[in-house]
């Protein structure tokens, strides 16, 4: 199954890269206490949360004026070495460091979004279909669900029944009550989605379809607005998702994410259960029902 995403219904204003850079640095600085980096903390005499600009500049080995310009969104001439120093001072993760670089370097490192729909290679689609018993899908930019197999439809719902524009993890997570019921740790799922959208925004600041999605979700979901304001970023990874399926009840599934060779904007995500577990038996039951599983026990 494969999605040919339609063009946006209406134009949207691109995200403001300078504002994104400014807020990202400010929020990273605010989360660090002086004691975290070996500096004295004067307690109630501090007027700002976290580190002061002066303290961060000292740790990074740059002038206060230089860092202030950068935090105001002016990263046009910043060097990779200075960004590395600031990343170390802020104790950024690899994903955060990459995001900072994309925001600061602007047009020098900015990726351009092709006007063509995201395509899944035919052999990958065939691979998905061959993965019997393993829920799997391919997700692209903007959290768009591009292709999936029969088991993914049994676990998450038959996305083929949705309009192409609705086959999007962000829309499903924040706007569909049945997905809120599906994920036991819904808040963590929501955080993961927003963190990945932020990564996309850093790579593609001129993506008007992404801007439109962010605007729509900001209007329709208070939770999305709150999480988007944190400016947190994170790459797709691995872990365990606990779900409550309307037909088989509890599921505890390990997930793995794999970036696609030749298209780093696409990731294959797979789910599997511990052998011999109740979740493994539940997946076998869902496999016997296939896409009909969600018709047998309709979601609220």
Describe the protein.
The protein has 300 residues and is an alpha+beta fold. Helices cover 45% and strands 13% of the residues. Residues 2-11 and 296-300 have low confidence and may be disordered.
Key descriptive features of the protein:
single chain; alpha+beta; 5-stranded antiparallel sheet; 14 helices; 5 strands; disordered N terminus; disordered C terminus
Percent helix range = 40-55%
| Beta-strand residue percentage | 5-15%
Sheet of most strands = 5 strands, antiparallel
- Gyration radius, to the nearest Å? 21 Å
Instruction: Count every beta strand, where a strand is a DSSP E run of 2 or more residues.
Output: 5
Q: What are the SSEs and their pairings?
A:
Layout lengths: L16 H14 L22 H8 L3 H8 L8 H11 L3 H12 L16 H9 L5 E4 L5 E4 L1 H7 L12 H7 L1 H6 L3 H18 L4 H13 L1 H7 L9 E8 L3 E12 L2 E10 L5 H12 L3 H4 L4
Antiparallel strand pairs: 1-2, 1-5, 3-4, 4-5
Helix pairs in contact: 2-3, 2-4, 4-5, 5-10, 7-13, 8-10, 10-12, 11-12
């Amino acid at each position: 199954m494969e999605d040919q995403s339609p063009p946006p219904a209406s134009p949207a204003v691109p995200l403001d890269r300078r504002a994104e850079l400014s807020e990202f640095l400010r929020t990273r600085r605010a989360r660090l206490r002086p004691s975290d980096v070996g500096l004295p903390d004067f307690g109630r005499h501090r007027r700002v949360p976290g580190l002061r600009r002066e303290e961060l500049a000292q740790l990074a080995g740059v002038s206060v004026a230089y860092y202030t310009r950068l935090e105001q969104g002016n990263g046009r001439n910043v060097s990779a070495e200075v960004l590395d120093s600031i990343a170390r001072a802020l104790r950024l993760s690899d994903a955060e460091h990459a995001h900072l670089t994309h925001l600061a370097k602007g047009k020098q490192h900015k990726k351009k979004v092709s006007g063509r729909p995201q395509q899944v290679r035919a052999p990958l689609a065939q691979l998905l279909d061959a993965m019997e018993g393993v829920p799997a899908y391919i997700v692209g930019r903007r959290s768009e669900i591009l292709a999936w197999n029969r088991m993914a439809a049994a676990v998450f719902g038959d996305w083929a029944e949705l309009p192409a524009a609705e086959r999007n993890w962000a829309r499903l997570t924040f706007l569909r009550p049945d997905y809120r019921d599906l994920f036991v740790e819904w808040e963590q799922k929501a955080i993961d989605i927003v963190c990945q959208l932020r990564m996309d925004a850093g790579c593609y600041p001129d993506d008007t379809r992404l801007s439109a999605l962010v605007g729509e979700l900001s209007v329709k979901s208070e939770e999305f607005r709150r999480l988007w304001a944190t400016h947190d970023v994170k790459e797709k990874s691995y872990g365990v998702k606990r779900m409550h399926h309307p037909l088989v009840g509890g599921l505890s599934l390990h997930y793995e994410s794999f970036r696609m060779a030749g298209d780093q904007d696409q990731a294959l995500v797979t789910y599997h259960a511990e052998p011999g577990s109740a979740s493994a038996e539940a997946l076998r039951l869902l496999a016997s029902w296939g896409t009909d599983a969600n018709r047998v026990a309709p979601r609220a």
